[in-house]
Write a structure and sequence with these properties.
2 domains; about 300 residues
Length: about 300
């Protein structure tokens, strides 16, 4: 009788183990299926979004618009020509540079576009889409260009500024940076946002075309302060710190630029001329290391 009870107990235990394993298998299978479905939906959504980024159909503008930059209300002209770095300044001495561009091929003006700056780029331009880009594209094409902050955004009394020799406004993830930028301008006649992929690429391509330089600079110099190297009156676009953008690649956000200290290169998959890197939405490593800043654009 005792042996019979033991056998029944063993069978019960075996049955419970089998039930648990079966439940675990079903749960795991459901998780895999759910992940697969979410991935398929993410890729499908991404494909649809990237198809919408077609700027060739937007109405052409008079090319003279690029040569006569508009000056927003409460801004003044500081220095430079339309094609070499036209600089304006607001009442608080924040400075921005005009980037002339068109959505058509032109001998005089660069095309507003996304670019790959090397053949073996880690993340291709076609693997990225932008958030909040439509209004910017229409405005830029209709007005012949846009303004980019002359400097990486620094801090002054803990407020964001585009000024020389200011400490980089770092230590922020993209969500936090976008919130900070919202505080910069309340004027309905001008819009200020985190730089997007079109703006970053077009400005970088313009710099490369008009200065005949290698875009990326790996000089091992001290970071943190704005205003070291300038091309077309735009400072530090080719070096200093990584910069947050509005670009996304599937479920990650894109950062751009380069940093000057080799010790951080081990933490990113990189080739010498890469220009795009993906990180999670609220990645903390780069912010903790003070090598991730951001830059703004203005348009109307």
């Amino acid at each position: 009788m005792k042996n019979k009870k033991i056998k029944i107990l063993v069978l019960i235990i075996i049955g419970l183990v089998l039930i648990k394993e079966t439940y675990g298998y079903i749960k795991n299978a459901n998780s895999i299926y759910k992940f697969k479905r979410e991935s398929e939906m993410m890729f499908s959504d991404f494909d649809e979004r990237i198809k919408k980024e077609d700027i060739t159909s937007i109405k052409e503008y008079n090319i003279e618009s690029s040569k006569e930059p508009y000056i927003p209300e409460e801004f003044i002209y500081i220095e430079g020509e339309w094609n070499t770095g036209f600089v304006i300044q607001d009442q608080n001495e924040n400075q921005y540079v005009w980037v002339p561009c068109t959505n058509k091929e032109s001998d005089e003006i660069v095309k507003l576009n996304k670019y790959n700056f090397c053949d073996n780029s880690f993340i291709d331009k076609n693997e990225c889409v932008d958030e909040e880009y439509e209004e910017f594209l229409i405005s830029t094409i209709q007005n012949g260009g846009f303004y980019i902050s002359r400097f990486e955004i620094g801090k002054e009394d803990n407020h964001p500024v585009s000024k020389k020799e200011k400490e980089i406004f770092d230590g922020l993830n993209r969500t936090e940076a976008m919130s900070i930028i919202d505080e910069m301008y309340s004027n309905n006649n001008i819009k200020c946002s985190l730089i997007n992929g079109y703006a970053y690429d077009t400005a970088l391509y313009w710099i490369k075309q008009t200065n005949n330089i290698e875009v990326f600079n790996f000089e091992n110099k001290e970071l943190i302060y704005t205003g070291r190297n300038s091309y077309n009156n735009i400072f530090d676009l080719t070096d200093n710190v990584f910069e947050l953008t509005l670009e996304t690649s599937y479920d990650t956000v894109i950062i751009r630029g380069m940093i000057n200290e080799y010790e951080f290169m081990d933490f990113v998959t990189i080739t010498e001329e890469d220009s795009r890197f993906s990180i999670l939405q609220d990645e903390n490593f780069f912010t903790d290391q003070n090598v991730l800043g951001f830059r703004t654009i203005l348009y109307k």
